[in-house]
Amino acid sequence: MKNSDKNNGKNAVEGPHRGATDTTAALSAPSKTADRGSPYAESLEEMSASIPRLQAFTAAISTAGLSSLLRAKGPFTIFAPTDHAFDKIPSAERAALLGDSARLADLLRHHVVSGRVKAPRVKKSRRVRPEFGEPLKLTASDKGFHVDEARIVKTNIRASNGVIHAIDTVLDPRATAS
């Protein structure tokens, strides 16, 4: 049996996640509409909309009026909270946040960094400045990659104008503004 038959035609992931399937190539395959300078067809906005666990983030971006930011030339790095991350916010607080487009825009801009930010290396933490708020601290350990208190659950989701790192917690710029 061929390796591709074993994985139903998907690319097997090597290394510590052996046995998982790599869908990044399928999600970011070039198309006829791809920018000439990028092998990826979809913008950050289109890419986030195509990922099932980033639907709350995508909806929040639209509600806050920030869709044009995710379509801009870039490159940008987005630390995108998953749907589960938004579910961790108490419902009354989440409703208030979604009802205040200025506060929502600031919160979401706290998840956007100009330039491409690679995942951190073990023992080499660094800080990056988001579009809004105080710098974010990137760390790596045997427990995974982190941005401030959020764990990065999926790295390097590539788009034509940047990269998305999915995170398990919504970062609040008010929490780091002290």
How does this structure look, described?
The structure is a single chain. By secondary structure, the protein is an alpha+beta fold. The chain has a single domain, classed as FAS1 domain, CATH 2.30.180. It contains eight helices and nine strands. The strands form two sheets. A seven-stranded mixed β-sheet has the order 4-3-9-8-7-6-5. A two-stranded antiparallel sheet has the order 1-2.
Strand order within the widest beta sheet = 4-3-9-8-7-6-5
Determine Rg (CA atoms, Å): 17 Å
The CATH first-level class comes to Mainly Beta
Architecture in CATH?
Roll
Distance between the amino and carboxyl termini: 59 Å
- Listing every helix as H and every strand as E from the N terminus to the C terminus, the arrangement reads HEEHHHHEHHHEEEEEE
Using DSSP, what is the number of strands? 9
What structural category do the secondary elements indicate? alpha+beta
* Percent helix range: 25-40%
Do you know the CATH topology? FAS1 domain
- The parts where pLDDT drops under 50 for at least 5 residues are 1-37
* Average pLDDT figure: 79
Mind telling me the CATH superfamily name? FAS1 domain
Largest sheet: 7 strands, mixed
